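dumping this here so i dont lose it
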């Protein structure tokens, strides 16, 4: 992240806060790394229900960046960057914290994957991960879809932009047919917004646009309840040291402003 002469709040990959009930039914899925959950606590408001630790393939750097619950609240999905700078995504039983599956996306020698955003399809069948990557010295971002029940990879798409990044955001459409990804360039006021076919990963539209001011520091994406419009919000220094927020609406089907 670049250093800034004037202090202001930067919006960086937020981690979802999960409120889950203790009596949630177990999830159905394949366990690949064994059970690591703790015991459930009494259903007292604010009481810790369980804690689970993910250590990756070896001791070292592990950073969780985004989390979400399945629509039926039976599973909690967590993603982030793990040892050797790979995407690491884990599914936990929401009732007891037992690990259901863990998937790691290798980066390869000299490459890196930094997972920063997670979304769950509205039917709960698919989990989507996106974040900045460097592959063969080409920077960009990678979006990958996993089966929610097993962690098996469905598709993977890389999008080259040749810049570094500050923040990313993604969301699935209410119909579950499209995944929208928005990224905020680091060090320059530019953005790339992409719509992917949720089943195949095919690119439906891409918008490359300029931001405001000399730099922007955060981004988030939302979709209307009917799925007709996508809204991308960014923070910028265009309004002076206090910064400001700008919202861009798109036609969800075409990407037209």
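and the seq i came up w/
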């Amino acid at each position: 992240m670049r250093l800034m002469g004037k202090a202001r709040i930067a919006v960086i990959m937020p981690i979802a806060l999960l409120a889950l009930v203790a009596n949630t039914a177990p999830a159905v899925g394949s366990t690949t790394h064994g059970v690591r959950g703790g015991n459930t606590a009494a259903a007292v408001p604010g009481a810790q229900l369980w804690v689970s630790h993910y250590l990756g393939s070896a001791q070292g750097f592990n950073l969780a960046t985004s989390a979400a619950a399945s629509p039926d609240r039976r599973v909690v999905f967590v993603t982030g960057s793990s040892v050797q700078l790979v995407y690491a995504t884990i599914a936990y039983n929401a009732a007891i914290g037992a690990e259901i599956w863990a998937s790691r996306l290798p980066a390869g020698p000299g490459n890196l994957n930094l997972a920063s955003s997670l979304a769950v399809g509205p039917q709960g069948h698919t989990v989507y991960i996106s974040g900045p990557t460097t592959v063969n010295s080409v920077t960009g971002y990678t979006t990958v879809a996993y089966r929610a029940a097993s962690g098996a990879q469905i598709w993977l798409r890389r999008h080259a932009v040749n810049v570094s990044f500050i923040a990313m955001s993604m969301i699935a459409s209410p119909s579950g047919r499209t995944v929208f990804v928005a990224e905020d360039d680091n060090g320059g006021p530019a953005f790339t917004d992409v719509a992917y076919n949720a089943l195949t990963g095919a690119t439906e539209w891409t918008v490359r646009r300029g931001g405001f001011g000399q730099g922007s520091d955060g981004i988030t994406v939302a979709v209307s309840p009917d799925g007709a419009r996508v809204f991308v919000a960014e923070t910028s220094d265009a309004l002076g040291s206090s910064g400001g927020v700008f919202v861009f609406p798109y036609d969800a089907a075409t990407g037209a402003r």
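The chain has one domain: 63-251.
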